[in-house]
From TrEMBL:
<dbReference type="InterPro" id="IPR013216">
    <property type="entry name" value="Methyltransf_11"/>
</dbReference>
<feature type="domain" description="Methyltransferase type 11">
    <location>
        <begin position="18"/>
        <end position="120"/>
    </location>
</feature>
<dbReference type="InterPro" id="IPR029063">
    <property type="entry name" value="SAM-dependent_MTases_sf"/>
</dbReference>
<keyword id="KW-0489">Methyltransferase</keyword>
<dbReference type="Pfam" id="PF08241">
    <property type="entry name" value="Methyltransf_11"/>
</dbReference>
<protein>
    <submittedName>
        <fullName>Class I SAM-dependent methyltransferase</fullName>
    </submittedName>
</protein>
<dbReference type="GO" id="GO:0008168">
    <property type="term" value="F:methyltransferase activity"/>
</dbReference>
<dbReference type="GO" id="GO:0032259">
    <property type="term" value="P:methylation"/>
</dbReference>
<keyword id="KW-0808">Transferase</keyword>
Length: 247
């Protein structure tokens, strides 16, 4: 399930891509399939080891075209182990709401992004997220949990302050908002067979939708995304520095 829309965020074969806070690697895998030179970075060593295994399996299965590369590594988003201007593309999906120094993370992303490069930032959307917080303290008051809720204009302003030039936004995953509201209402710590029937039933619906991609739910989600989309997605570029004769 991708949050970044690659029809709005074009990726060319050979692009150097950083998936920052990659988690289970969903965006990194898609970039690898598209022929990019991918670095998937996360502070969670266990997840990084799993991502590395999937990269190896994809290579063996021939899922990535010739020239594509993929590396999974542990790292700190506030001290990225890369030189300036290292990447053509940076993706940070559902990460910034966890990090106290979000301005520091933005500064590091801008530093390693080349002039003219593109960045995609996704965070939980303000309205659906407020409902989750209201329904459950356990949803956000946990170690490593969500520490802030972004308004769209706030996130875009922080991106501009970091030196980025936003060029597009949208919302995603409307069908997932009710699932999280149910989880928060019945208990976010109840998973699998321990989850109440409404949560299990809705989860089955989401799995079916992800696997089958039926037209009816695709149309419904596109219609509902502007209203209750779970994620807010922003795209931006890093401007080229003006020449001295233009300064």
């Amino acid at each position: 399930m991708l949050t970044v829309d690659f029809t709005r965020f074009p990726l060319a074969p050979g692009d150097r891509v950083l998936d920052l806070g990659c988690g289970a690697g969903r965006h990194a895998f898609e970039c690898y399939r598209r022929g990019a030179q991918v670095v998937a970075l996360d502070q969670n060593g266990e997840e990084i080891r799993e991502v590395a295994k999937w990269f190896a399996a994809m290579k063996e299965a021939g899922e990535a075209p010739a020239g594509a590369t993929a590396t999974a590594m542990e790292g700190d988003a506030l001290a990225l182990p890369f030189p300036d201007d290292s990447f053509d593309v940076v993706i940070i999906s559902e990460v910034m709401e966890h990090i106290p120094d979000d301005k520091g993370v933005l500064a590091e992303m801008v530093r390693v992004l080349r002039p003219g490069g593109r960045i995609a930032v996704t965070v939980p959307r303000y309205g659906p997220e407020k409902v989750c917080w209201a329904l459950s303290d356990a949803y956000h008051e946990v170690e490593g949990g969500h520490i802030r809720i972004y308004r769209a204009d706030e996130l875009l302003e922080k991106m501009r302050e970091a030196g980025l030039r936003p060029y597009g936004t949208h919302h995603a995953h409307a069908l997932h908002s009710p699932y999280w509201w149910l989880k928060c209402a019945f208990g976010v710590d109840k998973d699998g067979d321990e989850a109440p029937l409404p949560v299990r039933a809705y989860h089955k619906l989401l799995v079916w939708d992800i696997m089958k991609k039926p037209l009816a739910t695709r149309v419904a989600e596109r219609a509902l995304n502007p209203i209750v989309g779970k994620s807010f997605v922003a795209y931006a570029t890093k401007p080229h520095a003006p020449r001295e004769d233009q300064a």
